[in-house]
Amino acid sequence: MLEYRTHTCGALRASHAGQTVKLSGWIHRKRNLGSLCFVDLRDHYGITQCVIDRSSDLFQQIEDIRVESVITVDGTVIMRESVNKNMPTGDVEVRVTHIELHSMADVLPIQVFGDDNSPEDMRLKYRFLDLRREKIHANIVLRCQVIKRMRELMNEQGFLEYQTPILTASSPEGARDFLVPSRLNPGKFYALPQSPQQFKQLLMVSGFDKYFQIAPCFRDEDPRADRSPGEFYQLDMEMSFATQEDVFQVMEKTMGTIFNEFGKGKKVSQAPFERIAFRESMLKYGTDKPDLRNPLIIQDATAFFNNSGFGVYDNKAANGELLRAIVLPQCGDKPRSFFDKLDGFAKAEGFGGIAYVALSTNGAKGIAKFFNEEKMAELKNTFGIAEGDAIVFMGGDKKHISKFAGKVRTKLGEELDIIEKDAFRICWIVDFPFYEENEETGSVEFSHNPFSMPQGGMDALLNENPFEILAYQYDMVCNGVELASGAVRNHKPEIMYKAFELAGYDHSVVDSKFGGMINAFKYGAPPHAGCAPGVDRTVMLLLDEPIIRDVILFPLNGKAQDLLMQAPNTVSQQQIDDLHIQLVEDKA
User: Fold this and answer.
1) How far separated are the first and last CA of the chain, in Å rounded?
2) Which of 76, 216, 298, 586 is buried deepest, with most CB atoms within 10 A?
C-alpha cells in the first residue's frame, strides 16, 4: 500500500464498495448535518465524498480543520443513499475511520469552492489558490493535453523538436525586446527572443529539414485581453524545400486536428482552409483578422456615389473619400430607431454618420428619396439588394475607412444576432504587403516579417513601388483571432540586403543585427518556410475564455507584474554594480 493513498479522489466507483481505502487531498468543503459530517475531499483527479458519524471521535477533529487543509483519510467504501450523477464518484462515499492532518490552512483570502468574485489582482496574488478552482484547473489540464497532441501531430509528419537559445542578440523584429545586461561583457546586452526566428532558419541551413518547438517568446508589449504581456508560447515550425502550400498542409493537419478533437463538438472549418488575400480581406471584412462566422460582407460603394443625387456622399467621393456599403438581408422593416442607433455609433467613432436605404413592405426609406428610378435599379444590381432588405453606407478617408467599416460589420452582426454559434471558422490571410508607410514619417518600413521573401524577388525590389510589393507572408485566423503568422523565408543574401536597404537599413546594420544568419546564407541555404500558431490563443479559443490569463499558469497582470512572486522588483546595489549599469531617476 502506498503511504498516502491507495486511490485518487477521482477513482472510486460502485465496484470498490466494501474495500478499505486511503485517500489524500484538500478539504474542498464540509457539511455538518448534526448527526453526520460530510467532507468533500479533492485532489488533482477529482472529488470523493467522505462521511463521519457524530459518535466517532473523529467528528470534533474534522470540525476543527479548516477547508483547504491537506489531510489523509482511511475508511471503507460504501454506496451512497443519495447518488450524485454529476460527479464520477457520485455512487459511493468513504466512511472515515482515521484522519491525519498534514497541513492546516489559514483563513482563505479568496474562495476555492463555488463562485468567487475576487478582483483579478487578488486572484493573481494568490494564484496557487486560484489554480485549485475547478474551472481554472481544468483550463490548465486542457492546455497540457493540447500541447501533447501538437507534439504528436508534428512528430507524425516527420518533424523533430529542437531547443533554441533563450539568451540571444537584440534584433528589430517589430516589438520591443527584453534586454539582459551582460556581467562578463560590460556595456553589452543579451535579448530574450521575440521568437526563435533566426535560429530556426539556421537549423534549415544546417540541414535539419523539419523543425518544431513549443517555444517561449518574450516581447515587451502592452497587454490586451488576447495577448499576455511579457511571455507567451507558440508552436514554432520550419521546413526546408517548402512552399507556402506545403506549410499550409502541415498546419491544416495539425491545427485542424486540434480544433476537431478539442472543440467539444463545435463545427470546424475543414482543410483546405479558405485563402483570402489581404486587400480582399480589408475590403470585405474591414480587417486582416476576419470573423467568418459573421455572414455580412462590406462592399465598395465609391463608384455608386457619382452624381447619385445624394449630395453628401457624392461630395465625399468627389473629394477622394472612400464609400463602403453593407447589405442587411431581411432588415427592410427595421424601425428607424435601429438605423438612428447605428448613426449614433458612427458619430461616436468620429465619423460623420451612416446613411441607409430600407426596402420595406411600405416602400423604400432612408436616402432612397434622393435616387431616381434608374439609380434605384443600379442600387439593387450593384449590391445585390432585394425587396425586404436594407443597406447601410459609410464614408471616410483611405487610412481609416476599412477599420471603421469592420467595426460596423461586427456591431451589426451582434445586434442582429447572426454570428454563427458553436463554430470555429478558420482561414488563411495571404499576400500581405511587404512594406507599409510609417504614418508619422512617411518612410518605408516592414509591414509583417523582415525575413520574408518578396513576391517577384529582386526584380520586384528593383523595379516596383515598395508599397505595391507583396510578400509570401500569411496568417491563420480563427473567429476573428490571429492564431498564427508565417512566411516563405528570404534565403538569398543579395535580396535580403536590398529588402532592408529599402526599409532604411544599410549593409552594416544588417551584418550587425543578423550577421549570424546572413553569413550562413552565403554558404548554401535551402528554400524554406515556416509558421507559428500561438498556444495560449489556441487554448483560449477552445475554451471560449475572454481573458488569456485564464489559460496560463502564472500570468502577469495588466501592468506586466507578477503579483505572486513580486516581480519586477528591486535588486541589490552589488548586483547592479556587477552588471556595470547605472540607474537613473525617473523624472516622469
Assistant:
1) 64
2) 298
Residue 459 is placed in which grid cell?
Answer: 526584380
Answer yes or no: are the C-beta atoms of 549 and 230 closer than 8 Å. Answer: no
98 strand-pairing partners: 74
State pLDDT tens for residues 197-247. 999 999 999 999 999 999 999 999 877 767 777 899 999 999 999 999 999
Residue 290: is the preceding peptide bond cis (ω within 30°)? no
Residue 373's alpha-carbon distances to 301, 355, 364, 369, 379, in angstroms, are 18, 19, 11, 10, 10
Mean pLDDT over the full length of the chain? 95
Using an 8 Å Cβ cutoff, are 34 and 7 in contact?
A: no
Rg (CA), the chain: 30
Gap between the Cα atoms of 82 and 41, Å rounded = 17
List Cβ neighbours of 418 (8 Å cut-off, separation of 6 or more).
294, 295, 296
Check residue 291 and report its DSSP letter: -
Give the three cell numbers for residue 326.
453593407
Q: Which residues pair with 424 in a beta bridge?
A: 268
Q: Is 156 left (phi over 0), alpha (psi -120 to 50) or beta?
A: alpha
Nearest-angstrom CA–CA distance, 68 and 72: 13
pLDDT higher for 214 or 449? 214
**CA distance linking residue 510 with residue 501, whole number of Å:** 9
- Give a three-class secondary structure readout of 188-215: CEEECCCCCHHHHHHHHHCCCCEEEEEE
Does the structure show a pLDDT above 70 at 173?
A: no
Contact partners, residue 302, CB within 8 Å, separation at least 6 = 317, 321, 322, 323
SS3 at position 338: helix
CB 238 within 8 A of CB 206: no
Q: Which amino acid is at 586?
A: D
**Amino acid 450: pLDDT:** 85
Angstrom distances, CA of residue 236 to CA of 199, 358, 508, 541: 11, 49, 29, 19
Integer CA distances (angstroms), 249 to 48, 236, 284, in order: 45, 15, 25
The answer to whether the CB of 408 falls within 8 A of the CB of 345 is yes
Amino acid (one-letter) located at 243: T
- The answer to whether the peptide bond before residue 272 is cis (omega within 30 degrees of 0) is yes
**Rounded distance between C-alpha atoms, residue 24 and residue 35, angstroms:** 24
Q: How high is the pLDDT of residue 179? A: 94
- The closest of 226, 236, 214 to 147, measured between CA atoms, is 214
**Number of neighbouring beta carbons within 10 Å of residue 508:** 9
Instruction: Give the percent of the chain with pLDDT over 90.
Output: 88
Q: Quote the Cα angle for 25-79-50, to 5°.
A: 25
Tell me what pLDDT residue 228 has: 77
Q: Which of 72-76, 325-329, 576-580 is least confident?
A: 576-580
- At residue 425, φ and ψ (nearest 5 deg) are -105, 110
Q: Where are the alpha helices (DSSP H) in 120-270?
A: 120-125, 127-130, 134-156, 197-205, 244-262
30 φψ region: left (φ > 0), alpha (ψ -120 to 50), beta (else): beta
CA 74 – CA 385 distance, rounded (Å):
73
